[in-house]
UniProtKB/TrEMBL annotation:
CC per GO annotation: cytoplasm; membrane
TM stretches of this protein: 12-43
Keyword tags: Glycosyltransferase, Membrane, Transferase, Transmembrane, Transmembrane helix
Bilayer disposition of the protein: Single-pass membrane protein
EC number(s) recorded for this UniProt protein: 2.4.1.-
PANTHER family, sorted: GLYCOSYLTRANSFERASE FAMILY 92 PROTEIN
Class of enzymatic activity (EC top level): transferase
Family assignment from sequence similarity: Belongs to the glycosyltransferase 92 family.
Pfam families listed in its UniProt record: Glyco_transf_92
GO molecular function per UniProt: glycosyltransferase activity
Main location: membrane
Annotated InterPro entries: Glyco_transf_92
Protein name: Glycosyltransferase family 92 protein
């Protein structure tokens, strides 16, 4: 009987436990249902809310590298993107960690049976949220990672993405929409596409569709998608900060979601345009390995009235950082933006227009071999003021004269504006100076010009007032670099047969980087020394004629210049006459 009573008490105890557990579970279900209903009310509209998993960063144990930085267990490769000629490895740093340099790292390639190492091509970025290590393209059958030179320890690698189909950049616009940049949509140039065929998705892991936020596409054209941003993303600063911020991608309905490395970080913009911009005239350019020409380009344009420069660096591996530091120390307002994405110049210019919009009244989109030239007595400020009087003018289109090698076989020591003085007779193409506030919300552009909002128009600037000297066909040493790759999306590379007769190519050159015997005398129909004369008058030292952007060994360069100048004069006199 005693044992039986004990057994009954045990049964009652377990029964009580069962009912207690049931009540707790039921309460949790009610609370969860109420919470999700509340979220649903917050999202509203066309958004389809599904719960989002939040993963906390768990900092592993730390050790030091030479007493300065943690070992690789604290650092990881967030993601890798495979370009046709190199691999981009995005590093993920914990707080208070010294950033790696090129000298700290090796690119490591693994296969099933072997491994090998190579030096990185370059390390881009000076903050822990955006540093990129660029490694040479690895052999077939290998995967790429990184290792520390100091101890050979490998850095943990994350997912790898192909460049052919990728969401690669994103930013929040002042109207709280997300601007998304996508490679692989293959949409037509200058055409608005049907937005109902696409959907925007937000989350941390796009392989788990149940845990994503979905919103409508506002507009889509070329490589740019404008998305409605979820309220939860806008209202949570934590979700928009650093490497742990929420990602955004694009879903093609019926096909799937693009791979993405783009994080919808909040762009620091003013909600309303300021009444008066800080700068009247800015310039945006995209370049690769043009550091040796940058000083002349910046210093000249500063002298005529340009106040700020936005440099979009497209995988340079020359001394561009040193040159930019020199210019910055000389009080030129110039900033570098890492833009490693190949053949995306149109998207890059749209990105730059958004960044410049809050600071610049006008923005010129020109290359480093293009120089604004004012042949009349009007200055750049006068030209801009004249056009600003008309509120409907949103873009000034400026014609270009293309200059040839001008008889030279070596890079002119005084710079392109002084060295090249012979050009083709007719204008080729145009470039634009735009009001960023006037741009169409789709941000459609074809490098040479943008689409404008309703109510704005473009004007063609008279060649006697403003022209662009385009030093397009320089000495072969410089010109052959154009065969490496074109930067524009809708322009064929020169080594391809596509559009062989286009004005974007060199007439009669073909698709191979082989120097023609008569290259130095080509593209010379008109002798034009107007800009050269102005540059020498404004910049040259009276005694030596040395220009401020010339490199070291000035006496040697002066000697070469004197010899070349005499040959120049005879060449132009004989050739143009």
């Amino acid at each position: 009987m005693k044992d039986r009573g004990k057994k009954q008490r045990d049964v009652v105890s377990w029964s009580g436990f069962f009912w207690c557990t049931l009540i707790v579970v039921f309460s949790c279900v009610l609370f969860t249902g109420f919470t999700f209903s509340t979220f649903h009310l917050l999202f509203g509209g066309n958004e389809k809310f599904q719960p989002v998993l939040v993963f906390r960063w768990q900092a592993p144990s730390r050790e030091s590298i030479s007493g300065e930085a943690p070992v690789t267990r604290s650092i990881s490769i967030r993601e890798t993107v495979l370009l046709p000629d190199q691999a981009l490895l995005f590093l993920n740093y914990p707080p208070s960690t010294r950033l790696f340099t090129k000298e700290d790292l090796d690119c490591v390639y693994f296969s099933a049976n072997s491994s090998l190492k190579q030096k990185p091509l370059y390390v881009d970025g000076d903050d822990r949220d955006s540093q990129i290590v660029r490694c040479p393209l690895y052999p077939r059958g290998f995967t790429v990672s990184l290792a520390l030179k100091s101890n050979g320890e490998n850095i943990t690698a994350g997912p790898t993405h192909s460049w052919d189909s990728l969401v690669y950049e994103a930013m929040i616009d002042r109207d709280n929409t997300t601007i998304v940049f996508v490679k692989g949509l293959n949409l037509r140039a200058e055409k608005i596409s049907n937005s109902s065929k696409f959907e925007c998705v937000y989350g941390w892991d796009f392989t788990r569709p149940r845990y994503l936020l979905r919103t409508n596409v506002v507009s889509i054209a070329q490589e740019i998608v404008r998305c409605k941003t979820p309220l939860s993303v806008l209202s949570s600063p934590r979700r928009m900060m650093g490497n742990n911020s929420v990602k955004v991608s694009i879903r093609v309905k019926g096909r799937g979601i693009f791979h993405s490395i783009a994080r919808a970080g909040l762009h620091s913009v003013q909600p309303d345009p300021p009444a008066r911009k800080e700068y009247e005239m800015c310039v945006c350019t995209m370049l690769r390995n043009q550091a040796r020409f940058l000083k002349e380009w910046v210093m000249y344009h500063a002298a005529i009235g340009v106040q700020r420069w936005f440099i979009y660096d497209n995988n340079s591996d020359d001394n561009i950082d040193e040159v930019l530091e020199w210019l910055s120390n000389a009080n030129y307002n110039i900033t570098k933006h890492i833009w490693p994405w190949i053949k995306t110049q149109e998207a890059g210019f749209a990105h730059c227009a958004l960044r410049a919009r809050d600071f610049c009244e006008w923005v010129g989109f020109i290359d480093v071999d293009e120089f604004l030239y004012l042949p009349s007595t009007l200055g750049l400020h006068d030209v801009l003021q004249n056009q600003s009087r008309y509120g409907y003018v949103g873009e000034m289109r400026t014609s270009c004269y293309s200059f040839g090698p001008s008889g030279l076989t070596r890079v002119p020591p005084q710079g392109v504006t002084v060295g090249y003085t012979c050009r083709v007779g007719v204008v080729e193409r145009h470039k634009s100076i735009v009001r960023p506030e006037a741009l169409n919300s789709t941000l459609i552009n074809v490098v040479h010009h943008f689409h404008l909002r309703h109510g704005f128009k473009y004007v063609n600037v008279d060649k006697g007032v403003l022209i662009i000297n385009h030093y397009k066909y320089q000495v072969w040493e410089v010109f052959k670099e154009k065969f490496y790759r074109r930067v524009a999306t809708y322009v064929a590379d020169w080594q391809n047969d596509q559009n062989a007769g286009s004005k974007d190519r060199a007439p009669g050159l073909g698709t191979r980087a082989v120097e023609p015997q008569d290259w130095s005398t080509r593209f010379c129909e008109v002798y034009d020394s107007g800009l050269r004369d102005d540059v020498l008058r404004i910049f040259a030292k009276p005694e030596s004629q040395i220009l401020p952007w010339q490199e070291e060994h000035e006496e040697h360069e002066q000697h070469l210049r004197t010899r070349t100048k005499g040959k120049h004069k005879g060449f132009f006199y004989d050739y143009v006459r």
